[in-house]
Amino acid sequence: MKVLMFGWEFPPHISGGLGTACYGLTRAMAQQDLEIIFIVPRTWGDEETELMDVVGANHVPVSVRKYIFNEEAVSSETNIQYVEIDSNIIPYVTTEEYYNIINKRSSSSKQLQKYYQTEQSDTIDFEGGYGTNLIKEVADYAYVAREIAQKFEFDIIHSHDWLTYDAGIAAKEVSKKPLVIHVHATEFDRSGMHVNQVVYDIERRGMHGADAVITVSNLTRSTVIKHYGIDESKITTVYNGVDNVQLSTPREFVKNTDDKIVTFLGRITFQKGPEYFIEAAAKVLQRKKNVKFVMAGSGDMLEKMMWRASELGISENFYFTGFLRGDDVIHMLSISDVYVMPSVSEPFGISPLEAMRSNVPVIISKQSGVSEILKHAIKIDFWDVDSMADAIYGIVSYQGLDSMFKTFVKSEVDSIKWDSAAIKVKQIYQETLSKA
Per-residue pLDDT tens for 229-246? Predict the structure, then answer.
């Protein structure tokens, strides 16, 4: 079975859990006799492509219309390129007709006169990240997806998260092949009830346009039913797995302190609950001084968290590392004594599994999908700072409690494999194709 799969990031170029999940799942799927063509907005040339074809949309030529302007009307200070893309997709008004204008910089007030136009094939450049042009790139990606769907042979389409839903729909319209979308998170997870309407509309359009919907937890499944109006018979929960974390260069890390280390590792945003971690840290440090707290990650709340740590007077025991990836993540987990994930709304949460792989006791919020499957983890409400502080204090203070968790966490996480997820996804493909 051939799968045309749309993602947004792929190792080693990842910004969070989405890229990690796609990589783990696709590697396991390749072992299930599934041939995967994995599409991303941009490839860099160093992607791991041993088990699948990884194709960058930035290398796929599409039909464009270019306009050249009258030289007399253009001053030497003017730099204009005008590219028009034919598309059936309606542009979002907030992006100022981004389908029509790729780049326009002008300091001239003169009226420009169109000189002539050319019809030709060209590629569209993608940043491939999460920058200010994100909505524009999502739409451009969908446009290129139509061309991709005509170039490749495949049996089914699989789109990961809202960034690729429009691409999946476009490919379905061209190929008439069934579409499966994978909900790794929703706008309600990222923004609470203050949703971005443009993103919500894309999510809803993808869910209603899909032939089958995969959610990463029952928590997410409930959100999809409640807030997007999707028939529950169309939705299947497939839990994520975790890879066996290995260093690119095997070595042992040395913990250069006798203090206990408590780690938060994730995006420093509303969804991840970093402020609750800091408040809990302050409470622990009132009772026990030989504890170091680490907030590893980046995000829009980073500066605010730095100021809050200073206000609480805990800066000497609190460290901000910035975004970590690869071996740095393994290093951080290997010297940690406790891992805390206080997420306000976490569809799943792979990082606690990675911590457990490193034999680290974990504390997770009850508002996370991974709490549905973990038995040997302390579960607290994200807002219950006192319970979080008590749990941290207990693990770092009592050897028996620490040893008990270390005895069970490794064996438990070893049973949570991507292979199981891949088998279930293949079954969803087969059921969806049988109905097509």
Answer: 999 999 999 999 987 655
